[in-house]
Amino acid sequence: MSRRVLITGAGSGIGLTLARRFAAEGDRVALCDARADAIAKVQAEHPDFLARQADVIDEAQMDAFLSEVETEWGGVDVVCANAGTGGPAGRIEDMTYDDWKDCVAVNLFGTFLTCRWAARLMRAQGHGLIILTTSTAGLFGYPLRSPYATAKWGLVGLTKTLAGELGSAGVRVNAIAPGAVEGDRMERVLANESAASGRPIEELRQTYVKGVSLKTWVSADDLADMALFLASSAASKISGQIMAVDGHTESLVP
C-alpha cells in the first residue's frame, strides 16, 4: 500500500535520495527545502512530488507547508526529519554566538517543529514512523565542530524521548546516524575544517577513513537503504534506536 512520506531538507543530497527511493517504492512524497533554486529543480524533475520552499526554523513557513500536506493527505505515515547544516568549524573560543545559534537552530530546533506536527497527526491516527537524521557526531566527541556535535547529540535525546512518548500510540521513532557521506555537503565540510585547522583537505579526507573500521565513506543510498528498512514491516518492533550507517566509526578525533 502506498505510504505518505514527508521529508525535510530534501532539495538535494541525502534528503532528495530518500525522496526518490521512497517514490520508487510507490509512495507519495512531500518535501521541503530552504533553497528556492533547489525546490524549483525538484519540481521540474519530479512533478509528482509535493515540493515547497520552507525553512525548517521559520515557524510560519513550516506551518504553511505542513498544513498543505495535512490538507492534501489527511495524515502522514513516515516523516524523515532530515534537514541540517554543517555549521562552522573551529575552536570554541573563536566562534561567534550567532554562528553557534544558527547551527544548533537548523539541526535541532527545526527538527522540533517537524516532529511536533508529526506527533500530533500520528498519535491521532494510531500509527506512524518518525526518522531523525542525526550523525556519528551525535555519538562521539567531534573536535572543531562543537555546535554541530552538540545539536546532533540533542537529536539522540529527542529520538529516545519521543519513542517513549509515542510508543503507546503505535508510533515508532528512530534515528539514522550517517558517517562521512560522499557528496557536495561533505566537500564543504572538508573545506571549512581545512580553513580552521590549516591542514590540507586530502589529509583531512583520510582522517575520516582512518577512524572507520571498514575504511570507507558511505553514500546517500546506503542511508536510504536503512530508512526503507525502518519503514518496512521487518522493522515493526524497532523503536528508540540510533542506527549508525557509517562503516563503524571508532573515533572522530583526528
UniProtKB/TrEMBL annotation:
Q: Which GO terms describe its biological process?
A: fatty acid elongation
**Entries under CDD domains matching the protein:** SDR_c
According to the UniProt entry, its GO molecular function terms are:
oxidoreductase activity, acting on the CH-OH group of donors, NAD or NADP as acceptor
State the signal peptide span. Answer: none
Family, as annotated: Belongs to the short-chain dehydrogenases/reductases (SDR) family.
Task: Name the NCBIfam families for this protein.
Answer: PRK12826.1-2
Q: Which PANTHER family match?
A: 3-OXOACYL-[ACYL-CARRIER-PROTEIN] REDUCTASE, CHLOROPLASTIC, SHORT-CHAIN DEHYDROGENASES/REDUCTASES FAMILY MEMBER
Q: What is this protein called?
A: SDR family oxidoreductase
The record lists the organism as Roseovarius faecimaris
